[in-house]
Write a structure and sequence with these properties.
Length: about 100
């Protein structure tokens, strides 16, 4: 079960980083749209953790709802960190060119 939660978290992290990278390249530098996928994943993770305490054992691909919630929160945290680093780097380069 731990291995499936780690696998899910890694896959979600890669997906969130890719989506945030594409959104940051396609939006203006003053917008915060690149942070929205991670924020949505935080909300989903909290809902899954709440649902895990309400329902009986429900497993999806070898992990319970709580495991999916933990994996989602982990992916969102790492995604937010990497997105903020990419955003800071992009804004620093934009100011240096101006």
């Amino acid at each position: 079960m731990i291995q499936s939660v780690f696998t899910i978290a890694i896959i979600l992290t890669i997906a969130i980083i890719a989506i945030s990278f594409v959104l940051s390249k396609n939006s203006s530098k003053d917008k915060y749209t690149s942070y929205f996928p991670s924020i949505i994943l935080i909300i989903i993770g909290l809902l899954l953790l709440g649902a895990a305490s309400l329902f009986d054992k429900i497993e999806i691909m070898g992990a319970g709802l709580g495991g999916w919630g933990i994996a989602s929160l982990f992916a969102a945290a790492i995604g937010l960190i990497i997105t903020s680093i990419l955003d800071t780097y992009a804004n620093a380069n934009a100011k240096a060119k101006a």
